[in-house]
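During the reporting period the student researcher (J.K.) took over the structure-prediction task from the postdoctoral fellow and processed the backlog of single-chain submissions. One of the processed entries is reproduced below for the supervisory committee.
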Amino acid sequence: MKTTKTNTRRDFLATSIKTAMVLGAGASIVSNALNPIAALAQSADLTLQAKIAVLGTASLQTSQLALTKASNPDVKLFAKFEAAEQEVMGKILKDMGTPTPAPSEERKAMLSKLQTLSGAAFDKAFMQGQVDTHKKLKDAVSALMNASSNKHIKNVTALALATIQEHTERGQMLLGKL
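J.K. obtained the following structure tokens:
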């Protein structure tokens, strides 16, 4: 098992996020039992969490595909880190009880398109999809942060937004090099 600085940072962040989200979800459950208005807010949180789960699953699936199809080593490395991160986020969302609706037609079409491409065309389409998905993730996570009254969710979404911004910028830089 690798013990690189990046993996250590990712492991720490994954553990921190999961702990905060589980604690936050637990606090939300107690609060919701005591306050009907808070229950309505939790419902909105779950809807936004489901949207985030759909986008994250799409990013995971396309990244897993890129691990086998990407021709550019930097694209492959991006896909490796993205897949690992989305696997952790998927587990966190599942632990929070987030419903996972079926992927949208747009997400299915993106995956189908990528399956037909190869070489530089695949690399460019994959990276463009990642940049687009991360922009949508930023909007969804920002909406969750603004809609939630749960301080743990607010803290975790703030951390997630920093990572999403970093991935968007790295994706754009890589896309510019392709």
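The committee noted the following: The two ends are 31 Å apart (CA to CA).
J.K. will present the remaining backlog at the next meeting.
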